[in-house]
Amino acid sequence: MDRISDLPEGILQRILYFLSQEGAVRTSVLSKSWRYTWRTRPNLDFSDATFKGDIHEFITLVDNTLQQYCDQRLCLDEFHLRISVQYREHESASLLEKWMPMLTTMGVKESRLSIRSDYGSIDHLPSVVFEAESLKHLSLKEIVLDENAIEKIALCKNLRSLHLARVSVDDSIFQTMIAGFPLIETLCFDGLRIGLRTIKTNDLRNLKDFTFRELLFSADEFCRIEIHPLSLETINVSYGNVWFHKGANFLNLDDLRLQGVRSSLDSLSFCKFPRLKRLTLLYCDGPEESRIFIDAPNILYFEYRGDFVPSVSFAKNSVREWKSEIHITYITLTANDGTSLWFLKLNELLKSLSRSKISLSIYCTQRSIFEVDIIQEKINTVHDYGRNKPVFVETLNLSFPLSYFSTLVNGAFGICRPRKIGNYLGGWEVEFVGYMWKILMERENGNEDELARLLFRDLEEASLEIKGKYDEKEEAWRKAPLSEYLVNHRESRCRFVLKWRETM
Questions:
Q1: What whole-number distance in Å separates Cα of residue 292 and Cα of residue 10?
Q2: What is the pLDDT of residue 374?
Q3: Which of 260, 267, 341, 350 is nearest to 312 (CA)?
Q4: Distance CA 102, CA 96 (A)
Q5: 19-41 per-position pLDDT tens digit
Q6: CA distance 269 to 293
Q7: CA gap 312, 296 in Å, rounded
Q8: CA gap 390, 455 in Å, rounded
Q9: Which terminus of the chain is more exposed, N or C, with fewer CB under 10 A?
Q10: Beta carbons within 8 Å of 275's beta carbon, 6+ residues apart
Q11: What is the DSSP letter of 7?
């Protein structure tokens, strides 16, 4: 017995609300009660990306459906449309000018538009788009925003999210747009093409999520971004120059991610981040000459990737356990660049992060030049004969050419006490494992030299562990002799596990 079909019309419509447009249409074959129910559902969702016919059939479907709703004076709560505007054919653009006023007639409460220009062309956005008071979510791709497009933007006062992908817009047009969106919560820029050189978010008091991802890499092309709204919860900037207002208290910021930023980040030291959980700095040039202090007492995760050692420290953390992930590439073209100083700077960074669980990865290229004698001489300085103790590191990963094994291993062990050692060596993995096995086993046999005795004086136990190459389970790791790894190294992953005396 089909009891669902006997339910009141309002409940059937509520069921249809949670289906896609195509799914709602397919319910027409269930029974007579369902045959025409989908035609009066309170929400419409059209996407030419998932439509199985051609663009003309899609446009006809949208046009006929909206006309039917208007003719029957049906109310529509939500309207979602994803469409390509192709001015070579004019049809979709001209119909947008017809459809948008219809939404107002039907009393639409919320509309979501995704408009793109295909085939690399840049088309001008019809001004009628910004006339819909119901418009709350707008996504534009490969579109030109000019004065004509925004002439009636004052009507679009309820917009909550704006996503611009490879959109052409200049500073004055953008600032006019922002002034017309007082309620905006999400603002996303994805690869601007031309024009926009400055973004000021000062007046967006409801802004929660800000994303800027540029595709240009030339320094003189970077956009200046001024960030101030205290309502922000996430900030994600790639290849833009960022300015934080000194003294700002970001009460709600949870996630801060900066990549390729070349402007100074000194202002971060003068801001407060009471709720910040994640901080990510990827290949930013700004911190190279700066000493940055982050006042984030609830930080849970810090990640840094770059080709220099930054000076970053955190306020005392109220969280018992947090993690830091450091990926540093050593790059120098001359031996006078200060290899030993590089390790000393790294030691200072590890000290500042010592209250966290640290994962440290060190990389170098074939161009890098290490002066071995200088490193070994400075290891004593780092240790200071036991008074300046190395930092515990949960995981140490090393990736470098075969000729640097001894130099980098000695330098790394001179500043930290890793509990696990892995590598990203590719073809050199077997040689690395053999090298580490040799120096660890010589230590157990009492054959190590004076330097090794200094580096491993607190080491109690060392073992080799292996597991399947594609096995992601932590519990899959197991102890194994070197011979077993050498036989199965192509199908295995390996690591060394070290136990140190707790003398810190």
A1: 59
A2: 47
A3: 350
A4: 10
A5: 666 655 565 555 555 655 566 67
A6: 5
A7: 12
A8: 10
A9: N
A10: 250, 251, 252, 253, 254, 298
A11: S
Token code pair at residue 206: 């409801």
Q: What is the pLDDT of residue 97?
A: 84
Identify the residue with better confidence: 53 or 382.
53
| Dist CA 303 CA 280 (whole Å) | 5
Alpha-carbon gap, residue 275 to 355, rounded angstroms:
18
Amino acid at 165: A
Q: How many Å apart are CA 30 and CA 325, to the nearest integer? A: 55
- DSSP 3-state assignment of 187? strand
Which SS3 state, helix, strand or coil, does residue 464 take?
strand
Closest CA relative to residue 210, chosen from 242, 180, 179, 172: 242
Would you say 59 and 85 are in contact if contact means Cβ atoms under 8 Å apart? no
What's the pLDDT score for residue 101?
Answer: 87
Report the half-sphere exposure of 301 (CA within 13 A, side-chain side): 8
CB 223 within 8 A of CB 245: no
Tokens 């996303």 -> residue: 188
- Three-state DSSP at 87 gives coil
DSSP 3-state assignment of 334? Answer: coil
Asked whether the beta carbons of 184 and 208 are under 8 A apart, the reply is no
In the numeric block, the tokens 């024009």 are attached to: 195
pLDDT tens digits for range 258-307: 999 888 888 899 999 999 999 999 999 876 677 899 999 999 999 999 98
When mean pLDDT is compared over 217-221, 389-393, 399-403, the highest value belongs to: 389-393
Q: What is the pTM of this model?
A: 0.85
Number of alpha carbons in the 13 Å side-chain half-sphere of residue 384? 7
Strands 241-244 and 224-227: parallel
DSSP codes joined into one string, 401-428 = -GGGHHHHHHHHHHHEEEEEEEE--GGG
Q: Of all helices (H) and strands (E), which one includes residue 21?
A: helix 21-26
Report which DSSP code applies to 255. Answer: E
